[in-house]
Structures are given as C-alpha cells and as structure tokens.
Design a protein that fits this description.
six-stranded mixed sheet; single chain; about 190 residues; 4 helices; globular; alpha/beta
Amino acid sequence: MVSRRVLSTVAAAVFLLTASGCSSLHGLNGTDGKDFVQGDGGVHEVAVADRGRPVGFTGKDLDGKPLSLAALRGRPTVISVWWAGCPPCRKEAPLLVGAQQQLGDRAHFVGVDVRDGGTAAPKTFESQFGITWPSFYSPGGEALLAFPGTLTPNSIPATVVLDAQGRVAASIIGAVPSQLTLVQMVQDVIVHG
C-alpha cells in the first residue's frame, strides 16, 4: 500500500513538471509576465454520458478550516479559480457574486485561491467584492490536480461547474464573460443533470 506522503510527493512532482512545461508559477515562459494565462472565456460543456468520475478534493479554507468538494454534492457546485493579484479575477468577481445571488440555494459556490502566499490578501479580496462562499487555500495550486483534462496550473481565472454528483459538467477557462453566461451554465446542469 502506498503511503499518503508518497502520493503527495508524486502529485507535487507531477504538478511541478506540468507547470514547467507550460510556464512557471511566476509568470515566465509564455505568460507575458502576468502570472496567469488569459483563456478565451469560451464555455465548454460536457455531455452527461461523457462526464468522468466525481471530483474529490479536500483541503482547508482561508481560515484553516476543513473544506471538501464531496460535502457539496447534491446540487451543482460552481468552482472559481482565482488569486487576489489577478486583474481578470478582480474583473469577474462581481459577475460571480451576482450569479450566486441570482441562483440562491440552487447551487453551491466555492473558490480555489491558488497563488497567494498568505491569507491576508485573499481575505481582503473576498471582503472587497462581497464574496460569502468559502475558498480552498491552495497557494501551490495542488487543488488543480483534482481536475485533470479540465484545468492546468495556469488556468487562472477559471470557472468549473460540477453536477450534483460532483462530476465536471462545464467550464470556462478565462474570465466569466457575463453573469448571464454563468447562470445559464448552472441552469443547464440543473435541468439536464
């Protein structure tokens, strides 16, 4: 049986190799010094029959409290990948807040803070934009390993919608183009599974 420490070390190595193949975590090799890669903001939907296994990730939130994607199953979950110093993340934050308010209890929202070296800046970011949902604190980006084939180490910002079973149903790599786009993505998942 493989120990958790060995698995963690292997996962970290895979992450670093993947990151170095695309760009570094500090904005070199193809990110134009921005520390993120601007996606096109296009919506990618996954047919119900083509969805993989439920995404399982457990970590800690910005306050150090346990947080688990599995605990959010039962309704769609919107996952926002961000960091406090990312200009497109700041631009899309009001759209995410508006979508969350519009959807109410029909969907969970959770963030994944992937770059901040401490929790002060992301907590300020959340307060500034009125974000009330929890965020995983994953400064090394380890949380992104739970989304193979959907997210890369440079998928910032990105939004993933999980179905009620916790499977990837839709994603946007890049900033959310509009509140309406995100609301419609989630409503499609609610209606079609």
